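anyone seen this seq b4? input:
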Amino acid sequence: MAVSESMQGRQKNGVREIPALRIGPDFFRAFCWIASVAVVALIFWVVYQIAKVAWPAMQQFGFGFLNHSAWNPVTDNYGIVPFLFGTLMSSSIAILVALPLGLAVSIFLSEDFLPLPARQVVRFVIEMLASIPSVVYGLWGIAVLIPLVKSVGKPVASHLGRFGLFAGPVFGNSMLTASLVLALMILPTIAAISRASLASVPGTMREGAYALGSTRWETIFGVIIPTALPGIVAATILALGRAMGETMAVAMLIGNSSRFSWSLFQPAGTLASLLANQFAEADGIRINALMYAALALMFLTLLVNIAGEGVLRFAQRKTAGLK
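predicted toks r here
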């Protein structure tokens, strides 16, 4: 009788209760713990392997490697200041270009400015940009952007050449060319995540703003965007991380120069392009220096993510009304 009640369930207030079936320990929870520990251990293992190869260069160059501007394989004299600057500069320009465009696209797609079929087509095209290989972006930049930057950059440099950002002769393979392609590559990330954040804002907040007399644009900029700000910040962090680590398209377009220059029209280099271009032919201390540069790129990305996490938490607290 007890077995029959256990199998069929008990009646309580006319509702049949089905007993929970538990077979052995909680395997799913254990699997999640194992997977989490394995991922963390894998990251530390990768860092350890890179640091082990980079250790001779770290001993020889020390922290001077991070503030020295020479990269000379002939004399085995290495420093990554131009490449650090190029990584930060190209990523910053890409974010400055892509963030307003991505946010505008996300607003356009989430606030019913177009009929649903048209929005679906635009969203599909924007998100499809994320699946295009980076080498295709590089080829497109060679065919389209390099001639465009040359033709537009010459009159700009002639009028604004006294400013550091526009000084010197104009080259097609330059910081500006690579940054514009990076902006196009990270645009889908910003647009897709920002659109999802804007669309998740409760409709009651829109209706409440309209009921108080706000216009459509006042509602968008005063209510919807501040509410979706944590998602927009998260999209920006992810896009910045991709821009800093992008390799092939940047290596094809930035000029791969080891000289330090403030000009947007001059060739430059990034840490990722440095590794892609020189690792195959490197040997000796040069390999150790390249691995030291890879370690610096990892820690630079880590610092950016930590800063972004701080901004994200601040945005979440402000959205929740906390100080």
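Residues 137 and 249 are 6 Å apart (CA to CA). The chain has one domain: 80-319. kinda curious what u guys think
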